[in-house]
Amino acid sequence: MRTLVLASELIFLIAFMVTLGLRLRPELVKSEWAHPGRLARGVLLALVLVPIATAVVVKALGLTGVVAASIVLASVCPAAPLAPVAAKTAKGSPAAAMMLVISLGVLTAFTAAPSARFLLAYKDELDVRPPALIAKLLLLQLLPIAVGAAIHRFAPALARALARVLLAVVIVSGVVLVVGAIGPMLPKVGIVGWRGLVGIIASMALAVLLGWLTGGRDATLSRTFAATCSVPNVGLAITLVRAADGPRIAMAMVAAVFVVRALTNLVWVQVLGKLKRGAPDRPVAQRHPAKQL
Known about the structure:
The chain is mostly helical. The protein contains twelve helices and no strands.
């Protein structure tokens, strides 16, 4: 079963990232690099504001033990690869979300462990091996995106046909992954309790609010940040649990936090897409957000 789960994880992630590349417009991603302030705000939000706010929520609710640790771990492991799709649904900028995911993928390899130790007052070492995490990011995310983008540019007909096939692959591998990896853990997540559930949802709601406010007057950027920071990178969070030799229940709790936040995010992004603000202050690259991805 473990082999099947690992294979499903690899297939799902690679197929999903190639699909993103097939729909990506490189010129929009390139234009995001011309606005480093936007990216800097997103990094500040994800690495500083959201983790601190989450720790405050956990403390205010009196959560302790594995429940508190799992919620905090999720906050220091931001920006799941699903973020560009969430940003598109929220009528944000998938290109900006992509840049944020890539940047945070590199940065959290170095910041996640120290942040977790500080916020949880954990005294032992957490050896997460940043070079290995960055290599995984390059091989399983950036390279597949680049392959998909190249196919989109040089063989658009093939890109359209391949997108349909990969969609089926993503769905099937995703179902196998959820059933095989998370299913066996579900009977153990009753430990979360009602306060734990409130903590998961409240910390997520606060992250969405902070993301919205961090975007400032740019409504597109506000939607992007709110959609991007609301779902954690569950793979990195589980890596931290393993580095601490955490019990299996801790992995179950991290998975539970991810599932709750991912399901809740389906509602958030729909709401964000319908919110109306004043005239957005958007750069040239954001004039047609619906066509970005």
